[in-house]
Amino acid sequence: MLTVLVASSKGGCGKSTLVTQLASHWAQEGRHTAIVDADRQGSSYRWATLRPDGVPGVLGLEGGRKALQKLPPDTDRVLIDTPAGSHERELEPYLEQASVLLVPVLPSSFDLHATLDFLGHLGGIARIRRGKLPVALVANRLKPWTHASQDAVAQLAEQSPFPVVAQLRDSQAYVLLTALGKGIFDYHSEQVRNQQQDWAPLLRWIKRQH
Fold first, then answer.
1. What is the pLDDT of residues 11-42, one digit of tens each?
2. Which residues contact 199 (CB under 8 A, 6 or more apart)?
3. Domain of residue 51, residue span
4. CATH at 199
5. How far is CA 175 from each of CA 42, 147, 179, rounded to the nearest angstrom?
6. Number of folded domains in the chain?
7. Are the C-beta atoms of 83 and 5 separated by less than 8 Å?
8. CB-based burial of residue 109 (10 Å sphere; 0-12 exposed, 13-18 middle, 19+ buried)?
9. Which of 71, 76, 113, 209 has CB 3.0 to 4.6 Å from 134, enough for a Cys bridge?
């Protein structure tokens, strides 16, 4: 079973986007996919409950450690959405079960500084320090054609102890599809193909680690 833990130093950086889009991808692959939503806002859980009949279902569970115990034995993929600002104490229930840890970050100086501090804390966690839990950053809501986004990604890559494995462009498609319980991988049109390609490096990285 592959378990993806998604954590960040602050709210609004795209944790639930990572969780729901990856869930839609693996569900479309035919994987038995579940979301464990430990965030009080419950965005990922609500998304799972909204999945329409025309797309593969994703099991949504609320809560923390106890929710992990409720996973069906045939579960292939688990995504854990943690509360914003989680540190070792909040992440502890999930660190041993996690296969990889993803950290989304926005291209602003405020978010970059907050994320770098958060990464410093992560580096002190024993399992991460020993190299037993791979960590990667995902640059989110980028405007790739702007110098600001390009500079932010370059700065993050230079200062982070962990790799930046994907760059996701800013798009209203994620907002609109989330309200429908869907993801970009639930569609096969030309309109979403470029956005799907943004996720390819992340999916390759996860596959290599697993």
1. 777 889 999 999 999 999 999 999 999 888 88
2. 21, 22, 25, 166, 168, 184, 185
3. 2-209
4. 3.40.50.300
5. 15, 25, 7
6. 1
7. no
8. exposed
9. 209
